[in-house]
Design a protein that fits this description.
The structure holds 2 protein chains of 2 kinds. Chain A is α+β, with helices and mostly antiparallel strands. Chain A contains 21 helices and 19 strands. Classes of the chains: A alpha+beta, B alpha/beta. At the A-B interface, helix 1, helix 2, helix 7, strand 10 and helix 8 of A face strand 1, strand 5, strand 6, helix 3 and helix 4 of B. Chain A: Belongs to the TRM6/GCD10 family.
Chain lengths: 620, 515
């Protein structure tokens, strides 16, 4: 995983100023990092991540900039040196030595060990180099910035008057400004989250890494590749299989984070890590088929008719797994003769969104899901590449398709034409026909499967009111499954917690018992059509109980924030400033199967004798 | 290889014998138990879980769909101490219970317990989170906000190898196992999607956790736990002092044949040790030059083997409560060439949500504030009180007058006795006065009824209303931080050790990718 920098992947470059630049690395192009210069992308390809490079000056006779790997010892040189210096002082443990330096600390031999800031003069004139001179130096552009810094430092009139700390700060500031270095980071979900949070926090609901971690943990997200999809007690609905339901208004960041934890975010070649694959990598130097239309039925109707309507149960699905040799690597001759880009042969093509296990099912309010950020992982939701694992493992359906499938066009079966009719068709019409059939098959499969419920959990990070989402999502979660709702602000979740409060649950149970008594015997369960009983779409909204409060156990509201520290020899403290904004809250609960009717709780209630309190005082 | 799926990853539809199940009583009160249908010496019902909310024989917990609300049973818990008698008595009673219980005979020799009138728990499948809430504490526990952030920052992904040193109570072990788990050894079900030609040729790399524990007892307990939790394929526990002996495992140590013999071949390292900087010298990619900063211990005769995966950047996190530990660790990290060093602390809290009811109508109601809710209400109450006071004052005066009159009357009577001439006159006068009184009293009654009820009446009224009021939706919705918060758990130090990159590598890369 992220073993070395591969062509056509997105990478993040961090500049000394802390600014992160995200770009797709394309062979034989140049990468421009602003005022620091330009260098060929090929100089990064094949190199490991996390290295810091320095732009060297163009040598005479060479056409382009060279890069130099800055070794760790050089990066840490200053801190380590000052650390050594600081140690003797610290070891004395004089009260004056820690932190607040009141006066110069002079060693026994008269050498000044620690200076204080009595001599600090806040005057820019102490720097003797003028701005013009510095500009000159920059233009000359020598020694990747180090020389400039050295000159600037040398021209400072009172450098030796500075305390060690202010000197360090000064040189750090200069380094940020002039050092022509950058660090290459893999663009994984963590880096991406940081990057987007800095740039467009509103786009991802100000989702921080802390929350991403918590969401994954509380939703019990893991790789469900080997999980079983089982049939529930009613014999119809299914249970488990490592399937999670997602509502995502973070442009796909939540989906990416979950997919990363499930092992379906990175395309397989990225996951492989060794040099053994490098031969094949060379072939991939040409732009991979990402971006190619996937539903290209026109040339090969044969393949289309062969495509079975994949049954959704686990047992039969793996049998359709592809002929391994045909999937990834196109034979060069074929590709070169047909197309400028290598194309994946579509024989034994496995339909999209068809994996029975280890899947994410995304529910979206618009016709298409917004998964814009997945482009950084080479996945385009509108035009997915069949080699990407998300192609099979990410399923999407709209709320309309879930709640009222019959009113969705894609769910209605297009007429089945006979072979003879098809043969007479124009090829373009034929391909439209196949396209429609395929879309219908896919939609039907996903909708039916989703309505059979039994998901391992539901993760909601959306702007819609959470109770309206949970009203329909919670019944689709299996008993013992996890429900997680993220919100950047606390208010929606406070209201949600209230809807699942102990008192409300008690009142709900009371009401249900009364209702049941009123209409004894009349019982309706929507299970006869093979789906989980969902509330009717047009059912009048119950103002007091918009959600069934008995379905969730132990609703909890929490938040978490990481506080960054600076750890430098003798200068350890929390960072002075950091980003504010939304705190980010998480609602978590466990889906349970309540017993019908009245259930008396037990326990000491300190003599409380309220009728309503007794029934459900147990779990909070 | 028939594998029993791990209940943490794939609990199935229902609880089954000999698997871990969790009984959730309250949000933070969970009881882990290995469900067992074996007969027990203590109870006729077999293994029994006794809780604050009742007693639950395992027979009522097994083969239940996960998430089920289970009712408590009537189990004779009292006679457990009295040996000898106990079994007989249990049987007798159980016999009775069986009769009560529709006379259904149980198919095993276990006695079926009758359902109790109250008490229940929820039976939920284990997850690292629920396990963290109820595991047997051996050391400080790494809680969910910390471990979730750590695993996120360390980019733990399915298929990765994690070294964990200082396994402690095992909460991180379980979370880490979940993060890297990607299938059971030797049970590579072919799935489409992630599977492609190349991966099939190559043996799949299974996610693994290599856990080191110095304390022998704890290590043993952990081994047993891992076994009973079905995590054997994912977690390897080693009892070892990692400061001295490092992290490399003998290649035969693996529980099954492993594709890469060089275990642990780690991508991720988590050190929950008192002195992580002492372990860092074992986490290098190449042998350290002899004059290192670490105290020399005599070079090992065996050829150098790195515990790190040479093909990935190694991510590390150390977990130390004290800042001094952090400083030492970071200095060591810098010396050994780790990059991207950063340190954070996690501040997590849970929020309580409740309804706060304020108002005069809340008088005498539990859990509410009976002060006036608004200024208007306060003014109204003051008016009422004042009005009542006036009335009472008036009544007081009236009463006093009455007394005076009576006294007068008595006096007059005495006078009449002395000279009983004007008796008739006074009689008429008294009659008149009485009539006047009656009118007064009547008007007073009407006056009283217009006034608000007395405190006594109000309380009475409030009590009567309390049961009928929909308290769950009244008042203002508020949230506040939970009573007890963890203000400091530990400092988390993160760093990355990139792959080794030599001049030769650079030459090769240049040749391959051009310039």
């Amino acid at each position: 995983m992220h073993s070395y920098i591969r062509p056509y992947t997105h990478i993040a470059l961090r500049l000394p100023s802390g600014i992160v630049k995200v770009l797709e690395i394309i062979p034989n192009t140049n990468i421009n990092i602003g005022k620091f210069g330009t260098f060929p992308a090929n100089l990064l390809l094949g190199r490991p991540y996390y290295l810091t490079f320095e732009l060297l000056d163009k040598e005479e006779g060479k056409s382009q900039t060279e890069l130099r790997v800055v070794p760790a010892s050089e990066l840490h040189a200053e801190t380590l040196a000052s650390d050594d210096a600081a140690t003797p002082v610290e070891s004395k443990e004089e009260p004056t030595a820690d932190g607040g330096v009141q006066f110069d600390i002079v060693g026994e031999n008269g050498e000044v060990i620690m200076r204080n800031n009595r001599l600090t003069v806040d005057d820019p004139s102490r720097q003797t180099l003028s701005m013009e001179e510095i500009e000159e130096l920059k233009k000359a552009g020598t020694g990747s910035g180090k020389e400039i810094i050295a000159k600037i430092m040398a021209s400072h009139m009172a450098l030796e008057e500075k305390t060690k700390f202010s000197l360090a700060k000064y040189s750090l500031r200069k380094a940020k400004k002039y050092l022509r270095r950058f660090t290459v980071l893999p663009l994984d979900v963590g880096t991406l989250a940081e990057y987007v949070l800095e740039k467009e926090p509103f786009k991802v609901m100000e989702l921080r890494e802390e929350s991403l971690g918590l969401i994954g943990a509380w939703a019990n997200i893991h790789c469900g590749d080997s999980s079983r999809v089982l049939t529930a007690h009613d014999g119809i609905s299914q249970i488990g299989g490592g399937r999670w339901l997602v509502v995502d208004d973070t442009a796909g960041l939540v989906v990416a984070s979950l997919a990363e934890k499930m092992g379906i975010l990175y395309s397989p070649e990225e996951e492989s890590e060794g040099e053994e694959e490098e031969e094949e990598e060379v072939l991939n130097l040409e732009k991979p088929q990402n971006g190619e239309p996937t539903e290209t039925g026109s040339e090969n109707p044969q393949q289309d008719t062969e495509m079975p309507d994949i049954p959704t149960d686990a047992s039969s699905a793996p049998q359709t797994a592809s002929n391994p040799n045909s999937t990834t690597k196109p034979t060069p001759s074929l590709s070169s003769s047909l197309k400028p880009f290598p194309r994946k042969p579509h024989r034994n093509h496995i339909p999209a969104m068809s994996s029975p296990t280890n899947t994410l099912t995304i529910l979206h309010p618009n016709a298409q899901p917004n998964l814009a950020l997945l482009k950084y992982f080479n996945f385009d939701a509108c035009d997915p590449s069949p080699t990407h694992p998300l192609y099979h493992h990410l399923k999407s359906l709209s709320w309309l398709q879930l709640l009222s499938p019959t009113s969705s066009d894609d769910y209605r079966e297009p007429p089945l034409l006979s072979d003879s009719v098809l043969a007479e068709m124009k090829s373009s019409k034929r391909s439209t026909y196949y396209k429609k059939r395929r879309r219908w098959e896919r939609t039907k499969r996903v909708v039916d499967e989703t309505r059979r419920g039994g998901f391992d959990g539901v993760v909601v990070a959306g702007v819609m009111s959470p109770e309206s989402v949970l009203r329909w999502c919670v019944p689709l979660v299996k008993g013992g499954g996890r429900v997680v709702v993220y919100s950047n602000t606390v208010e929606p979740l406070v209201e949600l917690c209230d809807l699942y409060s102990k008192d409300r649950r008690a009142a709900f149970v009371q009401r249900e018992v009364e209702r049941q008594e009123a209409m004894a015997g009349v019982k309706k369960e929507g299970e006869e059509n093979g789906t989980v009983a969902l509330p009717e779409l047009d059912e009048e909204e119950d103002l007091d109980f918009p959600v069934n409060p008995t379905l969730l156990l132990a609703p909890t509201l929490q938040t978490s924030r990481a506080r960054d520290w600076q750890v430098l020899p003798g200068r350890t403290h929390p960072l002075m400033t950091s980003k504010g904004g939304a705190e980010g809250y998480l609602f978590t609960a466990t889906r349970v199967l309540p017993l019908e009717g009245k259930v008396e709780a037990r326990g000491n209630f300190r003599g409380k004798k309220r009728k309503t309190g007794e029934k459900t005082a147990v779990p909070t | 290889m028939a594998h029993r799926p791990c209940p943490f990853f794939d609990p199935g539809t229902q609880s089954s014998n000999n698997t871990l199940g969790i009984l959730q009583l309250k949000r933070d009160l969970l009881i882990p138990t290995i469900l067992s249908s074996e007969p027990s010496t203590d109870y006729a019902e077999g293994k029994v879980e006794t809780t604050r909310f009742g007693t639950f024989p395992h027979s009522t917990l097994i083969n239940q769909p996960w998430g089920t609300q289970v009712l408590a049973s009537v189990v004779d818990t009292g006679s457990r101490g009295a040996k000898g008698k106990k079994r007989k008595r249990g049987k007798e009673e159980a016999g009775k219970e069986e009769e009560e219980d529709e006379g259904r005979p149980s198919d095993s020799q276990l006695v079926k317990a009758a359902t109790a009138s109250s008490g229940f728990v929820h039976l939920i499948p284990p997850t690292p989170e629920t396990w963290t809430l109820c595991l047997p504490h051996r050391t400080q526990v790494v809680y969910t906000p910390d471990y979730s952030y750590i695993l996120q920052r360390l980019r733990a992904r399915p298929g990765d190898h994690i070294i964990e040193a200082g396994a402690g109570s095992g909460s991180f072990t379980h979370a880490a196992a979940r993060a890297v788990f990607n299938g059971y050894l030797g049970q590579d079900v072919t799935r489409y999607g992630t599977e492609d030609s190349r991966r099939k040729r190559k043996t799949k790399r299974y996610g693994r956790v290599y856990s080191f524990e110095y304390h022998e007892q704890r290590a043993k307990q952990l081994v047993a736990e891992v076994e009973s939790h079905g995590l054997r394929d994912v977690v390897t526990i080693t009892n070892r002092d990692v400061y001295g002996d490092g992290f490399c495992l003998p290649s035969s140590n693996g529980p099954a044949a492993h594709s890469s013999d060089a275990e642990p071949d780690a991508d991720i390292i988590f050190l929950d040790l008192p002195a992580p900087w002492l372990a860092l010298k074992h986490l290098t990619r190449s042998p350290l030059p002899s004059p290192t900063a670490t105290p020399a211990e005599g070079t090992t005769p065996t050829p150098f083997r790195s515990p790190l995966n040479p093909k990935s950047a190694t991510r590390i996190c150390t977990f130390s409560p004290c800042i001094e530990q952090v400083q030492k660790t970071i200095t060591a990290l810098r010396e050994y060439g780790w990059l991207e060093i950063s340190m954070v602390e996690i501040q997590a809290k849970r929020l309580d949500v409740r309804r706060e009811r304020v108002g005069l109508s809340e008088e005498g109601v539990r859990g509410a504030n009976s002060s006036a809710a608004t200024v208007k209400e306060a003014v109204q109450r003051l008016r009422d009180v004042e009005g009542r006071a006036k009335l009472f004052h008036g009544m007081q005066i009236e009463k006093q007058k009455e007394v005076m009159r009576k006294v007068e009357k008595v006096k007059k009577g005495e006078q009449e006795k002395k000279g009983s001439s004007s008796g008739r006159d006074t009689d008429i006068a008294t009659e008149k006065r009485d009539a006047q009184h009656k009118i007064n009293a009547e008007s007073k009654d009407t006056l009283m009824s217009t006034l608000p009820p007395s405190k006594h009446d109000r309380l009475q009224q409030a009590k009567a209303n309390a049961a009928l009021r929909p308290a769950y939706k009244e008042g203002r919705l508020i949230h506040r931080t939970e009573q007890e918060i963890k203000t400091h758990t530990s400092y988390l130090t993160f760093a990355v050790l990139p792959r080794e990159w030599t001049k030769e590598d650079e030459e090769q890369a240049r040749e391959k990718w051009g310039r």
